Amino acid sequence: MGRIKTIDNTSRKDFILKKASSLFIEKGFKAASMRGLAEVVGIEAASLYNHIKNKNELLHEICFRVANRFHEKIESIEAEPCSTLEKIEKLLRFHVQNMVLHFEEVYVSDREWKYLSEPYLSNFHNQRKAYRKRFASLIEKGILDNEIKKMDAATAVLIMLHAIGGIESWHRSKQKISGKELEENIIVILVGGLKK
Amino acid sequence: MGRIKTIDNTSRKDFILKKASSLFIEKGFKAASMRGLAEVVGIEAASLYNHIKNKNELLHEICFRVANRFHEKIESIEAEPCSTLEKIEKLLRFHVQNMVLHFEEVYVSDREWKYLSEPYLSNFHNQRKAYRKRFASLIEKGILDNEIKKMDAATAVLIMLHAIGGIESWHRSKQKISGKELEENIIVILVGGLKK
DNA sequence: CCTACCGATCGGTAGG
DNA sequence: CCTACCGATCGGTAGG
After folding, report:
1. pLDDT band of B8, cuts 50, 70, 90
2. Do residue B42 and residue B78 come from a single domain?
């Protein structure tokens, strides 16, 4: 009693999740060990289990944090009073900023979600499919409104989302251009490619 | 002596490599086990080592097969007598076709190369960097020639290469559109995004 | 939060 | 190509 560190469990768990994200990027989920995580956290492996149930929980906490942000954003953008092309541009800008700001968890959720255990795996998969469908609907609407070239909407969504995933390499490199410049470049290429 | 299967070692090894690619996609390199590979190949785990030195060899054979194809292609395209934008379009079409035709090894080399062991890891990393630099030079030339909008060439390369990586999802899905249609859609969006 | 430990599984080898 | 086996490492638990 009367310990100096009155750090609440939430922040301790957040700290562990942050370290877990870095480790999962570096090694991959399967290759990352709980002993390795314990080491960077600064405790023994067994002690991790006072903060989390198991290794899988680390992954699904990371993945659903990201998935929920995506869901909320597309919901709010759909409701905005602007042209379809503008909505798509806003969504793309959100994706870029999200990648720049929350790089580690976004990257993990993108690359490692297949290691999610059930029922989280199915759940995540469904959320992902639903998100892409809503994104594709925006593009289809843009084509009907004559704002966007005729193209396969599903393919366009794949291209855009994966293109943004490429920011990973930018993030790793010496970062010659700023986040804002990066965003503008991506918008020029991707929105330029859509526009009629 | 006089055995029925006179199958040479090369084709046997190729068969193992093919099964390994599928397994690495499904489980990831680290999570895929040699026992699991042996099972799909139809032999005991220990017998695999008559065809390969170790698990790492499987990965670097896959990765360098892909890397070499890329290298040869960009070399031959650079020498062609056409406009820079046409060269880029040809390169993009090659990437799409490559992904459609050799999906499994391209996907593995894209996602799992970080598990390569030295000296293969450094070697692969260097080849990858060199390839992107040559691709970026094409884009820079296109900007100077006034065929391409002003943009950061390195960013454009990242976007394009990752966008094409998105074909993965197309490959997994029910493949509603054909490979050719896919190619045309990608060219419309990406080349459309570059063009001035 | 730690020490001590468990059963399972891994990549790989010996020897035939 | 197989049987038999090795040391190492894994995720996780008991008990304090």
Report:
1. low
2. no
